[in-house]
Amino acid sequence: MKNDTARFTDRLAATARDIETLLDRLLSPAVLSSETARPPRLVAAMRHAALDGGKRLRPFLVVETAALFDVDRAGALMAGAALELIHCYSLVHDDLPTMDNDDLRRGRPTVHKAFDDATAILAGDALLTLAFDVMARTEVHPDDAVRTALVLELARASGLGGMAGGQMLDLAAEGRFDNKRALGEKEIVTLQAMKTGALIRFACNAGAILGKADTTTRANIARYGSAIGQAFQVADDLLDVEGDAKTLGKAAGKDAAAGKATLVAALGVDGARDRLNELVAEASAALASFGEKSDTLRAAARFIAERKA
Ligand code: GRG
What we know:
There is one protein chain. This protein is an all-alpha fold. Helices cover 70% and strands 1% of the residues. It has helices spanning 4-26, 40-50, 57-67, 73-95, 111-114, 117-135, 144-158, 163-173, 185-210, 215-242, 245-248, 254-258, 263-286, 295-306, and strands at residues 104-105, 108-109. Strands 1-2 form a two-stranded antiparallel sheet. A hairpin with a 2-residue loop joins strand 1 and strand 2. Residues 54-55, 57, 87, 90-91, 93-94, 99, 106, 163-164, 167, 195-196, 236 line the site of geranylgeranyl diphosphate.
């Protein structure tokens, strides 16, 4: 019988394949009702940003959390695809010269390098808005209240008080607008919970919303999502110090060079590793009530902590 890690790897690959197929369809040049035309250059830039790459971790978390509640897989995949569109938009905008100024993403030229800055901005904008278009579709869930809750939570996770807000705090911490000021551990945790944690937490919450979970169960899933969201960012900070560009598919060592506010900077490499182990244990504890049914999500927490790219 396969162990949890092998089962996890197979399931991640299966979800990635299904998400690729869905995104390929969602980003087709075919014009939809209420649309006027789909400009080919914009379609091409959006496809460059979203297709053929990425671990598809966020959609996987939606699908696997939804599976805890025996939710229809096709609807969960559609919700996961909507979330992945937001993730892809954030990477396109993050890579722009005025943000992180990166040339390489997923081992390929970033969108502004393959196209141009204006096209990259518009591709990001259109991916962001398409995400809400997709999340509002009945294919996600037949119940209007479920879809409304998903749209609301997705907006909160990605906007002012979530990912975009976190990016703002990150830029401010770099000293872009004012004098640079070293952030304390608590401030770094808040920044990261917004910038990266919010979408990962949403992925898990989405599964619970689709499954119409009760309040206690929702809280446990949110606890799991917060722990793995934080673990994801700590692992990312460690990879920036210890990883290499070839495996990462993007530049390494950029955080230290920019003097970024990371937990590795605040706690040191060993301190960050200890924190990572605590977070994996916390994630696992949050799933206690699900028993063996949540073994794949436990394996996901370990994968997030140990990942090399
Ligand atoms: C521009 C509004 C706006 C937000 C940007 C997410 C983000 C905020 C910036 C990305 C910067 C970055 C590299 C953060 C580290 C965490 C992260 C999101 C890594 C990339 O996610 P993965 O590893 O990527 O899931 P793949 O390629 O597998 O999809």
